[in-house]
Amino acid sequence: MVARSGPQSEPATELAGRDWERSLLVERARGASLGAGQAVLLRGPAGIGKTKLLSVALDELSPVARTVLTVKCPESGSAAYETVRGLFEPLRLTEDGAESSPLLSGSARLALPALLPDRTDETGPTDTYSVMHGLHWLTAGLSADGLVVLAIDDVQWCDEASLRWLGFLLRRAEDLPLLVLMTQRTGHERFRPEVLDEISDPLSCLVVDLPPLTTEAVGDMLHRAFDRELDAAFSAKCAEITGGNPFLVQRVVSRLRGDELSPGAEQTALLDELGWDVVARSLLDRLPRDAYAVATAIAVLGGETIETIAALAGTQPGPAGAAVEVLRANDLLLGDGLDYAHDLIRSAVLDTTSADERVALRERAARLLNDSGRPAEEVAVQLMLLPGDPAPWMVGVLLTAAESAEHRGAPAAAAHYLSQALKHDPDDVALLAALARVLGQSEPTRALEYLDHALGLVHDPRTRAPLVVQYALTSLEVQNSLRAFELVDEVIDAIDAEGGAENTPADRALRTLVEFAYLISGLDEKSTVRRVGRRFRDYVPPQGDTAEERQLLGMLSSLGTFQGRPATEVAAQAEKVLRIGDVAPGGWAVLGASLSLYLADQIDPALDALTALIEHAQRTGEAWTHTLGRSTRAEVYHWAGNVSEALSDAQLSFDVVLQESWAPNVVMPQTALASALIRRGEPARALEVLDLITRPRLDRFTLEYHWYVMARARGRAALGDLEGALTYFYRCADSLAEGDISNPVLAPWWFDAADVLAELGRPHEGLDLIERVEESVHRWGTTRALGMLRTARGVLTAGDAGIDLLTDAVHTLADSPGRWEQARAEYLLGRRLYRRGDGEGARERLRRSIDLAVLCGDQLQLNQSLPALSEAGGRLRRSTASPADTLSGSERRVAEQAIAGATNREIAESLFLTQRTVEFHLTSVYRKLGIRGRQDLARVLRKT
Fold it and tell me: Nearest to residue 570, comparing CAs of 579, 578, 582, 558?
């Protein structure tokens, strides 16, 4: 289908001097039609012919394109996602009933907040990534039928939300039959230029600067217009005074025709006189006063109805219609509509008015739209063009517009409206908080500045409390938790000093939120963990009846985990969090509770909770929550001894991190992947993944740093660098002690260090380490932790006493979920038995180690247990190799979804990958497994 709502075509014969550009666009379309999505940005000054070239090119592309959608961005500005709506309006996706369109199936449904601005069934602000994700899959769905061409004229005036989506789309267009064509006026102050620059960054976007027409091309235009050869001097003069600008050449033609003058050498003086006035000014000077008022009204509210234009011009529709006909007769208007044929004409009309007159016109236009019941965002577009401080009625409109934009996943637009409203009263605390909230998604540092300002204006602790909570949550994005922690600490002390009254449900809910903020900020960095522990030493936890209480319980269970309190105690607390099954924004309650549960060896509840969080993030398109949930689940699978599942989740999280360019400041996906790769027998690759982490001050954080150091240490040990590994293990121990983190299994450096010290022949040093952690291990009290302690003692203890400890360890670990720890203990016991001369006992233990390592997918352990069994004179009862072992984590997860019947698109949607990436993974799976396609997947993988 061809849906043309923007650039309209003109006969191709009227396009002079652009043959190369036309052929380039056609060539790009052919490449895009083969599934290599790309974009072209046509740039040049006003009137250079960008729109005409675009229009003619679209006509030529129509035979090869399945869908052509076009839109023109208005100079007067537009509401959030208005360009998006203009593109998809011809598909009837912006009207009532669009929800049932088959085009909005699957993840494409997430685009609805952008397509339906009046949709009010959302319960809160929509995640921006979610909307972008939905629009991407809407476009991808269209491209399934063939080449899709999106044409955006005057992209420099595109609303920011739509502009950011175009950049989002282009970064994922490499596997789509998609061509994005854009025009951009140069020499114009751009709105949010850094956003526009993002579009021209991708390798798939070709930037073409249109040069002025040559003298020969201008002569060709004149020849076609007057159907005869013209004097060369006249053509040269016309090229000179128009600067080779096609639009101005066309206005010269119109002026000569209007004055019934014949072009020739005798008219060159007239050209000198015309200069740039050939645009419109000479015609405007001749208009009657009423017609002139209508002309200025159209310049302000182009595209509106004749009734609205008449009202703005201060006249009636009848006289306004007559004035419109005068403008149309002089070729100033575009077709049958009420908008100018070119932005140069609109600019010329506005230039004839004074600055004060323009301000009055725009304010009157805003009032007119507001009084007629137009959506607040439409009115706000006009208000944003006004200088100075907004009037009180304008503030109300801007606030409503901001709320609408935020609910539709356009926080940047909401921030612009709120910034304008704030000019009315820069000390309005509610406005400052609202502005900080919408900025928190994209510009958290700026958000904190506004919150700091608000906090400086408020002194009552209960009024400060919600601001402080907001400050704490925003601070997590920019590693500013120390400052947030101090603020929360102060406000709790202030509330307590006033008596700490909690008489109403609102008081109790507020106190719960403040305590949650205290915990989440205080547990982020090591330096504040001890203070958090002191404040909550004798705290009586809530019952978990509300979402706020469950959030608090989740963080309290994390605190108990850090402190190494009995595992049964913190697990019981964590189970309360998950009893209801709700998923709070950001998933903090679930993540905090799952940490406690899995370290307490309550594996299944932790996996169930994280799976629910991941599925929720898939449904809502929240890529970051999805990535964080998968990274955490990878750690749980690793702890449960399931390396294949850990690798799958970690690899997919890492793929999204790379795709979204999040890698430098993100830690968990890389550490989870590195840990799985080490178990997979790829320590060198694991260390390369860890090298991608460049977060500042990483060593100050409680969780990420210790998991990072443990992965580093295990990687070095797997490569045979035992001294280097030991350095990292000791670094982990010192850091945990510095942060008053005494949980023995959060980062079990001592367990690995004991093995390393035994290999280095330094058992006494190792036994000293065990003494340091023994009390905390018994306090935590899980069967796994006790088995690990006995394993560490056994490997460091010589003779029969060591064998007895290792025998006790394998029996203890057999009753726990610690499969890879048991495999390790069986291996160590087998080696010791062999050295004592008990070959049969050694072979039995080593075979058990191998069986467990195969079950876990622990190639690192297999690489040690297999040679040890051979040395002990044993043979394998069965092969340990499986074709499935060659699959990467992402390949395995994609294959599993394919077996379940998901299409490539459905797999890509749910994993936040591109369709081409899914196809690449499946092709690799088929090759590695030696099969032809999906029909063989289930048979082969289920065998393995």
Answer: 558
Six token digits for residue 469: 């909570």
Give the angle 7-13-15 at the CA atoms, nearest 5°: 55
Residue 404 and residue 438 in contact, taking contact as beta carbons nearer than 8 Å: no
Q: Please choose, from the candidates 171, 169, 203, the residue with its C-alpha nearest in 3D space to the C-alpha of residue 87.
A: 169
CA atoms 499, 503, 507, 508: torsion sign = positive
Please state, in angstroms and rounded to a whole number, the distance separating the CA atoms of residues 301 and 548.
48
Q: How many CB atoms lie within 10 A of CB 510?
A: 18
> Residue 182: which H helix or E strand, with range?
strand 178-185
- pTM of the entire structure? 0.83
Separation CA 912–CA 148 (nearest Å): 21
- DSSP codes joined into one string, 499-558: T----SHHHHHHHHHHHHHHHHHHTTBGGGHHHHHHHTTT-------SHHHHHHHHHHHH
Contact criterion met (CB below 8 Å) for 665 and 694: yes
Which residues fall within 8 angstroms of residue 126, CB to CB, at 6 or more apart?
113, 406, 407, 408, 409
Q: Which pLDDT does position 618 carry in this prediction?
A: 85
Contact 237, 271 (CB under 8 A): yes
3-state secondary structure of 371: helix
CA pair distance 795, 829, nearest whole angstrom: 8
**In which residue are the tokens 């959608």 written?**
69
Decide if pLDDT at 579 tops 70: no
Per residue in 669-691, pLDDT (tens digit) is 999 999 999 999 999 999 999 99
Selection from 661, 625, 604, 689 nearest residue 888 by Cα: 689
Could you say which DSSP state residue 91 is in? G
Which pair of tokens denotes residue 137?
A: 């899959």
The pLDDT-based confidence of 638 (bands split at 50, 70, 90) is: very high
- CA dist 247 and 716 (Å) reads 68
Q: Could you report how far apart the first and last alpha carbons of the chain are, in Å? A: 48
How are beta strands 67-72 and 38-44 bridged, if at all?
unpaired
Q: Is 181 helix (H, G, I), strand (E, B) or coil?
A: strand
Cross-strand partners of 180: 39, 150
pLDDT for 9 equals 45
Three-state SS at 230:
coil
Cα–Cα distance, 108 to 277 (Å, whole number) = 49
How far is CA 160 from its chain centroid? 15
763-784: pLDDT as tens digits: 999 999 999 999 999 999 999 9
For residue 890, the one-letter residue type is: S
- Which single residue is written with the structure tokens 């600019």? 347
R_g of the chain computed on alpha carbons: 34
Residue with tokens 């596997």: 175
- Encode 926-939: b = buried (16+ Cβ within 10 Å), e = exposed: bebbebeeeeebee
Query: Please, are residues 671 and 711 in contact by the beta-carbon 8 Å criterion?
Result: yes
- Count of C-beta atoms within a 10 Å radius of residue 738: 14
Please check whether residue 176 is in contact with residue 37, taking contact to mean a CB–CB distance below 8 angstroms: yes
How many helices (H) and strands (E) would you count in the chain? 47, 6
Average pLDDT in the chain: 87
Task: Let me know: does 689 contact 647? Beta carbons within 8 Å.
Answer: no
Q: Identify each DSSP E strand in 49-132 by its residue range.
A: 67-72
Cα separation, 781 vs 481, whole angstroms: 32
Beta bridge partners of 69: 3, 150
By C-alpha distance, which of 180, 158, 159 is closest to 170?
A: 180
CA angle 607, 610, 612 (to 5 degrees): 110
Is the Cβ–Cβ distance between 480 and 507 less than 8 Å? no
User: Which tokens belong to 411?
Assistant: 């926080």
Those residues whose C-beta lies under 8 Å from the C-beta of residue 629, and which sit 6 or more positions away, are: 587, 590, 591, 610, 613, 614, 617
Residues 6 or more apart in contact with residue 562 via CB below 8 angstroms: 523, 529, 533, 702, 739, 740, 741, 742, 743, 746
Q: DSSP strand E in 475-542: where?
A: none
Structure tokens at 795: 């490997």
